[in-house]
Amino acid sequence: MQFAATAPSRVRLPSGVGRYDIPLILQDKKFDSGVNLGYNQFESEGFVGNLFFVNGKVHPYFKAEGRKYRFRLINGSLARYFEMYLGDESDRFHNFTFIASDGNLLERPLTLQRILLGMAERADIIVDFSKYPPGTKLYLVNRLEQIDPRKPTGKLLNPGIRMLRFEVGPRRPDNSVIPAYLRALTPIDRNAAKIIRSFRFERNNGQWSINGKFWNPERVDAAPKLNVPEIWKLQSDSGGWAHPIHVHLDDFRILSIDGKPPPPEWRGRKDVLSLLPGDAAEILVEFRDFTGNYMMHCHQQAHEDHAMMIRFDVVP
């Protein structure tokens, strides 16, 4: 798993880690009535929490200068999806600029009002606080309702859960730029992939499996060749459960989800794909740098820990 590398100097994105380039780890955690953090390692379904954290703190605040910031969001929850918005005191929602997904810059920036994050997914966004008068308060808001570990309900909360408060200060000099173009993306050629593999993410007798098999570190479930493109078909077929699928070693490109092109924010290189119940996706994989033993698994932690994982070996 990686975060987006700093762009070349000619692309002057907001920089300075911890100053204008800020990681934001989004989590929910479950506490009992005695305010004890709860986790049952033998619970195979997982759970959603009752308190929300950013960088380990409950509803923190951030004093922002009146300039552009880059925020690197990651969903660090066990089973909760987030749909994040930028809201104000009146619960109006504002645009931000989306530039990278799962550690990879997009070809061009996107202007969005929302971003969906499954477990372990990352999103880099830019917020320009110079647009707001000093003293303005803005909020990073999760609006996606989820009441159990299965999946989000699909309902948007109104106004939502304010997870982080931004307090806007005076304008400051800012030589950072949001360019019209970020990086080149290799055109997708699905016809170059002659090998097609299928993986079904299933629930068998209350346990999690892929293609009807449980994790076995001694078993090789696929052996793709180095620098040879393949199409992997991923199917969520587990009776109403969502699965964020993480492929180790290299990134992939999404060809389709339920026969349709992916949304613009998912058209770059990724290493996590969120499958909602019944989803069928096709991804183009090509392992370019290393041979060896690697994994693909569901990143819902309880599913991963209870055998929803395969081993694949990249061979010469």
Automatic annotation (TrEMBL):
Q: Give a yes or no for keyword Metal-binding in this entry.
A: yes
| Residues of the Plastocyanin-like domain | 65-136, 201-315
Question: Which InterPro entries has this protein been placed in?
Answer: Cu-oxidase_2nd, Cu-oxidase_C, Cu-oxidase_fam, Cu_oxidase_Cu_BS, Cupredoxin
Which GO terms of the cellular component aspect does the record hold? periplasmic space
Superkingdom of the source? Bacteria
Q: Where in the cell is it found?
A: Periplasm
Please give the Pfam families that the UniProt record associates with this protein: Cu-oxidase (PF00394), Cu-oxidase_2 (PF07731)
Alphabetized UniProt keyword annotations = Metal-binding
**Major place of localization?**
periplasm
UniProt-recorded Gene Ontology molecular function terms: copper ion binding; oxidoreductase activity
Any idea what this protein is called? Answer: Plastocyanin-like domain-containing protein
